[in-house]
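Q&A log
Question type: sequence-to-structure
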Amino acid sequence: MNLDRYDKQILEVLQDNGRLSNQELADRIGLSPSPCLRRVRRLEESGLIRAYRALLEARSLGLNLMAFIQISMDRHTPERFANFEKHVAACPEILECHLITGQDADYLLKVIVADMDAFQSLLLERITRIEGVTGVHSSFVMKSPVNKTALPIL
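Response status: OK
Response body:
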């Protein structure tokens, strides 16, 4: 999809604040409301804008411990990976799951829980019980000086 400067501005502004009215968005990018709305709808219909979400404050919800977990699998088969991915997708504490290369691990999980007891429970009662998991290495987040959700619009 070819994006002109207005499309790029729309994407940048909506990533920062997806609750803007069409009028506010149009004013910010220097278009009249009708063409602005047509562009937003085209970006949505193309799938470039996938969804609108609220970003929540984790600590206010009692979620105080974030960790990254590297997972090693015993076999690299589509069935084994599909089974693992199905199980981790069902865990609300797992925010992200990435199949990775360049490490001893096969997967990298980003998890958030209330405390170390909740982490231990998630790890020992759920993650390590998934068939095929042979290794686990955890790293705990002490600080997140950069935490973006917006993608760079080039």
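Response note: The chain has a mean pLDDT of 97.
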